Amino acid sequence: MKILVIIVSYNFERWIDRCLGSLRQSEQQADVVVVDNASQDRTVQLIESRYPEVRLIKSRENLGFGRANNLGMAIALNEGHDAVFLLNQDAWIAPDTLGILSQLSRLHPEYGILSPTHLTGNGDKLEKGFAAYAGLQETELPMNTAFSEEGDLNKASLAPKHPILKPISFVNAAFWFIPTGILKRVGGFCPLFYHYGEDVDYINRLHYHGYRVGYSPTVSGCHDRENRPVTRAAFLRSEQVYLLSEYANIRHPFLKAFGYGVLASIKKALLAGLRGRMKDAFAYLKITAGLLGKTREVIGYRRKNKQQGTWYLP
């Protein structure tokens, strides 16, 4: 299977050796492209000097997560790859991860997105968000995962002979294995989302077109995202993105989507006001105004996303 790994980078220096180093150790050969969103550190220089095998696309502006990934997806289609693997810059994989996911993809074509089990950056427990999506305890580690004190993943001798696949309703895009046939039907990430929310919207579209999402408990990846403080601004940003993703959700009829997006935002504003949290009330009213201002865009993208095609891929 010809696989293209796509990494979107911005100030990638901190994780560059673990991320790209893990791909060098992969048992499944893959091409790698890094789309750099105008990093301000030594990302470009380090990739060029240490990882000459990596194709580097140097953007002069920050394209955002979705648009940058779309560039990589277009390369995969144009150059005849069988699948893409979206890998976050702050993440790295075990040597057998790509091979097992490619096997599972061939065996289960009804799955549009496959993921390994997500561990923390230290590799000592499940990543909190992934554990919630999968309905697992954070201490439930994959049976074939061993890790060093530095969090490097290694294949343990107790690995099962046959790969295992479990369905999941959602998994964030830190590690996404997507057959290119899915890109031809569902397209790329929707421009309605600049940074955050792209993965929620994409999975909603994937489900709408009849495909499933799954993960394998027999392979792993580490995602170094724990212990990041959640500020008030970050929380409100996540609320805005969530409500927009509900407004754009083509699995809902438009009126239901309007209720889950716009009306839900108004309700949050009213509840905040009744509880005396006027600052939050005004914040939600601002979110509501932003959602209403995007109504024409939302309607247009909803109409397009219900059709099959290579949408949004340059």
What are its keywords?
single chain, 314 residues, alpha/beta, Spore Coat Polysaccharide Biosynthesis Protein SpsA, Chain A, 5-stranded mixed β-sheet, 4-stranded mixed β-sheet
Describe the secondary-structure layout.
Elements lengths: L2 E7 L6 H9 L6 E7 L5 H8 L4 E5 L5 H14 L4 E5 L3 E3 L3 H11 L3 E10 L7 H7 L10 E3 L5 E3 L10 E2 L7 E5 H7 L11 H11 L3 E12 L8 H16 L6 H21 L3 H16 L1 H11 L9
Can you characterise this structure?
The chain has 314 residues and is of the alpha/beta class. The chain folds into 2 domains: 3-223, Spore Coat Polysaccharide Biosynthesis Protein SpsA, Chain A, CATH 3.90.550.10; 232-305, no CATH class. The chain is 42% helix and 20% strand. The chain has helices spanning 16-24, 43-50, 65-78, 97-107, 128-134, 180-186, 198-208, 232-247, 254-274, 278-293, 295-305, and strands spanning 3-9, 31-37, 55-59, 83-87, 91-93, 111-120, 145-147, 153-155, 166-167, 175-179, 212-223. The strands form 3 sheets. Strands 3-2-1-4-10 form a 5-stranded mixed beta sheet, with helices on both faces. Strands 5, 6, 9 and 11 form a 4-stranded mixed beta sheet that branches. It has a two-stranded antiparallel sheet with strand order 7-8. The chain is globular. The model is unreliable at 146-151 and 155-161 (pLDDT under 50).
